[in-house]
Write a structure and sequence with these properties.
The strands form two sheets. Strands 1, 2, 3, 4, 5, 6 and 7 form a seven-stranded mixed sheet that branches. Helix 5 crosses helix 7. The chain is an alpha+beta fold and 275 residues long. It starts with a strand and ends with a strand. It is built from nine helices and eleven strands. 44% of the residues are buried. The chain has two domains: 145 residues, Ribosomal Protein S5, domain 2 (2-Layer Sandwich); 122 residues, Alpha-Beta Plaits. Bound molecules: cytidine-5'-monophosphate. Cytidine-5'-monophosphate (C5P) binds next to strand 3 and helix 5.
């Protein structure tokens, strides 16, 4: 039996730089992983099975519709899976992709065949980056991955409990040919300099997502007004937003204040996992 953590994926930047003939968008995104996530428990079994527990278990499919189940099929290694669903679904921080990647890692840890980017891509554009779960510059549609060294970040994640459809957000994006990040990324001496630089970059999906779900704008305003905040931005196609703070304590204080004012929002303090 193995337990594999499925960390949330945060798109610190997300530039949409083009559109492929097959409808997939070309991206240039800095991705980090944090100490908040789902968990997969897996053990070898004659047939694949999946049970789901945790605060967001309700409504999560337990058959081939679930990416973790599909990942078990792709792995070629039958397992009985338990998914502890702690991340809100369809929320821009990778939940389903992280679960799928954790399932591929579980199969390998149990002695199954080696899983590659190509296997992961069969499960979705975000699964390859989640397979590594390391700070990465993601390009192409999610298939071109370059490891990066990032300073540690402390943040608050907020989801207004709105599920948002990724294809709808991409469809709402007016310009598909936005600037990429600089070809050579700068060297950041510390977290403050890095966060300052992040402020000069973007998430191109933030505006179209906020048109579909106005709650996103409300979350971003609340984060931008929270004490000691350095940067507030949406992750992925939303609706989860993150804000960066100077250290873990200031992030925890901001999270507590936000939770008091908005008891119905999902709010978590998170720190990036080491490089
Ligand atoms: O690959 P995945 O199933 O996660 O993608 C969900 C949807 O998001 C795709 O069907 C596509 O509409 C959109 N997408 C995209 N460009 C990407 C990644 C996803 O247009 N690079």
């Amino acid at each position: 039996m193995v337990k594999v953590f499925a960390p949330a994926k945060i798109n610190l930047t997300l530039h949409v730089t083009g559109l492929r003939d097959d409808g997939y968008h070309l991206l240039d995104s800095l991705v980090a992983f944090v100490d908040v996530g789902d968990q997969i428990i897996a053990e070898p079994a004659p047939d694949i099975s999946l049970s789901v527990t945790g605060p967001f278990a309700q409504g999560v499919p337990t058959d081939e519709q679930n990416l973790a189940f599909k990942a078990a099929i792709i792995s070629g290694y039958p397992m009985a899976l338990t998914l502890d669903k702690r991340l809100p679904p369809s929320s821009g921080i990778g939940g389903g992709s992280a679960d799928a990647a954790a399932t591929l890692r579980a199969a390998m840890r149990l002695g199954g065949p080696q899983m590659t980017t190509e296997h992961a891509l069969l499960l979705g554009a975000d699964v390859p980056v989640c397979l590594g779960s390391k700070p990465t510059r993601l390009q192409g549609i999610g298939d071109m991955l370059t490891p990066v060294q990032l300073p540690a970040l402390h943040m608050v994640l907020v989801n207004p409990k709105v599920e948002i459809s990724t294809p709808k957000v991409f469809a709402r994006l007016e310009r598909k040919d936005n600037h990429a990040m600089p070809e050579t990324l700068p060297q950041w001496p510390d977290s403050l300099a890095f966060t300052d630089w992040l402020g000069s970059q973007r998430n191109d999906l933030q505006e179209p997502a906020a048109k579909i779900a106005p709650e996103i704008a409300a979350v971003l305003v609340s984060l931008a007004l929270s004490p000691d905040v350095l940067l507030a931005r949406m992750s992925g196609s939303g609706a989860t937003c993150f804000a960066i703070y100077p250290d873990r304590l200031t992030a925890e204080i901001a999270a507590a204040q936000l939770a008091q004012a908005n008891p119905w929002w999902w709010i978590k303090t998170a720190s990036t996992l080491p490089n």
